[in-house]
Prior knowledge:
mainly alpha; 14 helices; globular
Amino acid sequence: MKIRKNILNRRSASQSAVYIVASILIGLLVLSYVASFFWGIMAACKTHKELLMEPFAWPKKWNFNNFILAFKSLKVYGVGLAGLIGNSLILAFFGPFLAIGGSTILAYVVAKYNFVGKKLLLAVNVIVISLPLVGTQGSTYRVFSSLKMIDSPLLLLNFIGNFGPNFLYMLSCFKNISNTYMEAARIDGAGHYKIMFKVMIPLAIPLASALWIMSVISTWNDVNMALLYWPRRPTLATGIYLFREIASRTNQLNVYYAAVMLSSIPPLVLFSIFHKKILANVTFGGLKG
């Protein structure tokens, strides 16, 4: 506490003003998220008619049975809630694992070894990040269809895209890990692969795991990928998206919002457990000067 007070005292007037404004803006943003979440719970506990007539009013009667009804009613293409959750788990956990794993291995090689084409790889990564890839869905779908990846677990191979922001994060991470670890392992007789998988990559696991958790949350909520490439293997996000049309026709919008709130529980739990890992600064050490 004393250290924090000393830091606050050393701030200039302009810095304090920026700090206060930023704190207020972040507080308002957080408040909007909390209000939206609470409104979703209210909507889920109303009747369909009440939701349409008085969307922002308190429920006349809190009907939590809508959550149970959502479990029973949520079915898309013959796939029930258990199947939707299972497809989401496959896509959201294994896909990011392949994506982060590929980026980590490539970043390690580029950071610690000199080889022909190294600068070209870095230039390609900058191009991939900078250029907008709008309008490629048609060609992508045709490629996936030709490779029999539509409605197939082979779609997970699409996640092995080593370039992108994750590659830059991991590249910076490995550049800040001292080569002394590699040299010590070589003295003990370790080869290149053992150094990579037993020494260097474990040192980068804190950052890699944080990127993986964020990617899991993003993929869990992704509608487009499963909608386009897994049409007969709908995920929970895709199932709820398609269920909205059914709910509108059958006067079950309250059940739809109940399903939406249920689908938000896994990301919230995951973030609550690992938020410190995501937000914390990653440091590396172990060498004595």
